[in-house]
Every structure is written in structure tokens, then in C-alpha cells.
Design a protein that fits this description.
heterodimer, A: mainly beta, 0% helix, globular
């Protein structure tokens, strides 16, 4: 299985801060990397697919990038509605695997 | 707009079989997408369970494969999950989701909590 190691597991940030979450794959996954946002009691919401492509309707303050097997989700200016848990996921191979999540909290 | 809705019993006895159905609306289950199940134990992360194509081809998480069956009913535009010999470790919110080759896991159901308890 491809292991997805996400960091940090949690972070505290203020409105307007730039936030970066990273995910490292245990082996090459090409560009088959997605990011999801999940709020308490809700289903995950797809933000980004194929490393850096935004799903329709997702604000442009969200962006994704990659360097080898390291992947990054960046929120350029944190908004109140962005406080949530974020997960990365690889869909290059089976079984599909997720990172353990990063909880973004209000400082 | 594609919508997915899970349904099924919220309580299953240990050693029993967990059965859930995902109804798809706003799109055809016979489109070129895979139909997936993902679960999340309370307070924990996401685990991919498995998926099915409208042809009946399926892929399962090896950790569940011996207990898992995913099927599709094209006449009802829905797909289903059956997980046998359940234990408390199978207690989770179960989500159904669409996997698109172009857009990844783009549409999700709201999720349904299944508790395994006597």
C-alpha cells in the first residue's frame, strides 16, 4: 500500500494567515493526488484533484503543488469558513489511501 | 448535479452483515465512473473500502476483501455494500462517493453511521 504521511496533524492559525499542509507519499504516485476538506458531521468535500486542479466552485485561495513525492496544500489567506480538517489522498494505486488528516483551528 | 444518498440499518449485531445502499440521482450509474465506498470510524480518519463499475468490475481494500461484496443495480441506479462478520471495529460513518477519471472523488453522499453492537 502507498502510505500517505501528512503533517502537521494540527495547527492553529489566524484569519488572513497563509497556511501550508504537506503530504508525503511512500512511493511515486505521479499526479494522482487529491485534497479534501471535512467539517464536523459533514462529508469530505473535494477541493483539489490531480495535485493542483481546483474543483468547480473552490475559492482560488486554495492551491496545490508537488515536488517529487511531497505534496502541498496552501491556503493563501485563511478565512473563517476554512477551519476544518484536511486530508490528502492518493488514487494512483489500490488500495486508495488517505493521509491521517490535519486539523486547522482558530488561534 | 449528481447526488448520492446512503441508506441502511444504523445498528448491526456483532458477527452479522452490514448492508448499505447508495442511490444515485442527477446522473447515470452507467456513466464512465467508478462508484465507491469510504468509511470513517468515530473521531478517526478516512479509509477507502472499495469500488464498482457499472459493468460489475470491482476493486476492494485487501484489509476487507474476504468479508466485502459491492454490487450494482443499473435498473435502480444504485449500488450496494455488504460487509460480513462485522465487529465493533467496523463501526463507522460510511460514505458513498463517485470516482471520476477526470476529477477524482468529486461527489459524496452525506454519510450514514453504522454501529456494531449487541
Amino acid at each position: 500500500d502507498v502510505q500517505m504521511t501528512q503533517s502537521p496533524s494540527s495547527l492553529s492559525a489566524s484569519i488572513g494567515d497563509r497556511v501550508t499542509i504537506t503530504c508525503r507519499a511512500s512511493q511515486g504516485i505521479s499526479n494522482f493526488l487529491a485534497w479534501f476538506q471535512q467539517k464536523p458531521g459533514k462529508a469530505p468535500k473535494s477541493l483539489i484533484y490531480a495535485v493542483s486542479s481546483l474543483q468547480s466552485g473552490v475559492p482560488s485561495r486554495f492551491s496545490g503543488s508537488a515536488s517529487g513525492t511531497d505534496f502541498t496544500l496552501t491556503i493563501s489567506s485563511l478565512q473563517p469558513e476554512d477551519f476544518a480538517t484536511y486530508y490528502c489522498q492518493q488514487y494512483y494505486s489500490y488500495p486508495r489511501t488517505f493521509g491521517q488528516g490535519t486539523k486547522v483551528e482558530i488561534k | 448535479q449528481v447526488q448520492l444518498q446512503e441508506s441502511g440499518p444504523g445498528l448491526v449485531k456483532p458477527s452479522g452483515t452490514l448492508s448499505l445502499t447508495c442511490a444515485v440521482s442527477g446522473g447515470s450509474i452507467s456513466s464512465s465512473n467508478w462508484w465507491s465506498w469510504v468509511r470513517q470510524p468515530p473521531g478517526k480518519g478516512l479509509e477507502w473500502v472499495g469500488e464498482i463499475f457499472h459493468s460489475g468490475s470491482s476493486n476492494y481494500n485487501p484489509s476487507l476483501k474476504s468479508r466485502l461484496t459491492i454490487s450494482v443495480d443499473k435498473t435502480k441506479n444504485q449500488f450496494s455494500l455488504k460487509l460480513s462478520s462485522v465487529t465493533a471495529a467496523d463501526t463507522a460513518v460510511y460514505y458513498c462517493a463517485r470516482y471520476s477519471f477526470a476529477y477524482g472523488f468529486d461527489y459524496w453522499g452525506q454519510g450514514t453511521l453504522v454501529t456494531v453492537s449487541s
